[in-house]
What does this fold into?
Amino acid sequence: MVTRPRLLFYCQHSVGLGHLVRSMNLADGLAADFDVTLLNGGPWPRDVPQPAGIEIVHLPPLGMDADYALVSRDDRYTVEEAVALRTRMVLEVFHRTRPDVVLVELFPFGRKKFRFELVPLLEAARAAHHAPFVACSLRDILVGSRRAQQAHDDRASRVANELFDAVLVHADERFATLEESFHPTVPLRTPVHYTGFVRGADDVRPPAERQSRVLVSAGGGLVGEPLFRAAVDAHPRLLAEHGLRTTIVTGPFLPEPVVDDLVRQATGTAGLEVLRYLPDLGGEMAASAVSVSQVGYNTTMDILGSQTPAVVVPYSAGREDEQSQRAHRLERLGALRVLDADALSGPTLADAVRDALGWRPLPVPLDLDGRTRTAALLRGMLPVRESEPVR
It folds into this structure.
């Protein structure tokens, strides 16, 4: 009997929510064609629901600090204890589910710190009696400013050639290609497929009338404090001069002391609201006069879907340049306005919001159907075979 193919999806988010949200959107779409098991390697946000129809296995959560060193996100485990337990769990889930497809988010183009569990998983996949189809799930633009970038790219190309059957880039190649941010001297022989951008199942449609509100967000919020502080400083002027209220959505990972301080300021300030979470951020963005945010992958999908005038402040600390590249490409297409992080302040943000009020973004003709096309690509690349029952 031919049964539904089984898919094992590995996702590790280390700083923000972007990787997890994109992976959840993908997993939700893949569940129409596959029995999906998701290995989640980061902390699960308290307010984010776990979707039905997908088995989620939560590994002891790890992340990275400002110096890119592994840190435990669960006080019950040291890093060493988490590493040992995760390695066992990943292999146990692989052998239990016997997947037809293994989908790994970002590695080997990133996540080098997680080789300890990913290489054993991929080697087990290669050695299996019915070897699964192994693919990498990759966002549109890679970080391209590591200290040893050439060595990193060469290593990634070798690993991809040895252990992967395909690379799925979740982008429209008219907007960004892998070759623009990946430059190995070791030729990449693994086939690369562009799926289109991945967004949630529901299209965001602008309402008939927008609220007189600025909506400020920064993904998971872990690195959003400078933006939120600037928004608080800009608020009195925006309210007095333009009648705009300000709603700040901190995200689940903004440190509690910062949240408490922002809430305290909002309590004594007319028209200023601070929330931890909104279940439909894209819909709220569409209902706002101006969106102010960072420009991670998923926020970009919300911006493009909402058609709301958007001011973005790309996160660019340390070696991070992915958001800046995405932001300036979209600005050249007329989709949004950019305020660089090194120019961010209350007055500059107020000026940027004022200018956005009289501006309308241009529609951007990009392929946004990656959620559907990824499933179709994987089904088309799978060999037809009799699937063994799961024991």
Summary: The longest helix spans residues 79-97.
